[in-house]
Write a structure and sequence with these properties.
heterodimer; A: mainly alpha; elongated; B: mainly alpha; Histone, subunit A; 6 helices; 2 strands; 58% helix; globular
Chain lengths: 93, 129
């Protein structure tokens, strides 16, 4: 909730391209597939987008906390770097 | 490693011409928009550069993980179950925060319609309201 005002359309083709760049053999299910095979369910680019949104959400919240602690009204690079280090245990950075 | 960027600002007139042929990546403008939305306070331009770098690493690691999970299950296609394992490992999906709630809260309606029947089918308990 409370997300009004931000368009959250996923750059689906881009997300597929990024994954193809890293893992050319790996397939993400298409939407059609996703609808037909409800039982098993293929993960499309939307779910990649979801995890990406949540990643940025966490990074932003952490960076903002760092800025507050620093009595800064603006998020600076060092706040972001520290935030990235904190979420390191997710093995994402 | 991540270091604050102390590059000289490039004059606006030069910026466009220095653009390299693009590697696939999420547009800087979109990263900026999403990050700023969640941050709720001003974000320095150099800080956004760091976010972009983090995003690249994020997708690299995401690809590795999704491959590992699907391979482990003997598949070449990433399925919702793999995605759920991933979000669980990141601590985003928990017993108190099931996949479909995450989807409901974070994705626009047209994607929710696609994903929710699938996300719910993987759960043993489906809270109906």
């Amino acid at each position: 909730g409370g997300e009004a005002g931000m368009k959250r359309t996923a750059p689906r083709a881009t997300l597929r391209r990024i994954i193809r760049k890293h893992k050319p053999e790996l397939r993400l299910a298409a939407n059609a597939d996703l609808l037909v095979r409800r039982g098993r369910g293929g993960a499309g680019a939307e779910s990649v987008h979801l995890s990406f949104l949540l990643f940025l959400h966490r990074l932003a919240e952490e960076a903002r906390t760092n800025a507050f602690e620093d009595k800064s009204k603006i998020i600076k690079p060092e706040h972001t770097i520290a935030a990235a280090k904190v979420i390191k245990h997710f093995e994402y950075l | 490693s991540l270091q604050p960027l102390r590059a000289k600002p490039i004059p606006k007139s030069l910026r466009a011409s220095q653009r390299k042929p693009r590697e696939p990546g999420v547009a800087s403008s979109l990263i900026k928009k999403i990050f700023s939305h969640y941050a709720k306070i001003k974000v320095a331009r150099d800080a956004l550069k760091i976010v972009e770098k983090c995003t690249e690493r994020y997708f690299k690691q995401l690809s590795n993980d999704l491959e590992a999970y699907s391979k482990h299950a003997g598949r070449k296609t990433v399925e919702m179950a793999d995605m759920e394992v991933l979000l669980r490992r990141q601590g985003l999906v928990t017993d108190k925060m099931p996949m479909h709630v995450l989807i409901e809260r974070n994705l626009p309606l047209e994607y929710r319609k696609l994903l929710i029947p699938i996300a719910e089918s993987g759960n043993k308990v489906i809270p109906r309201k």
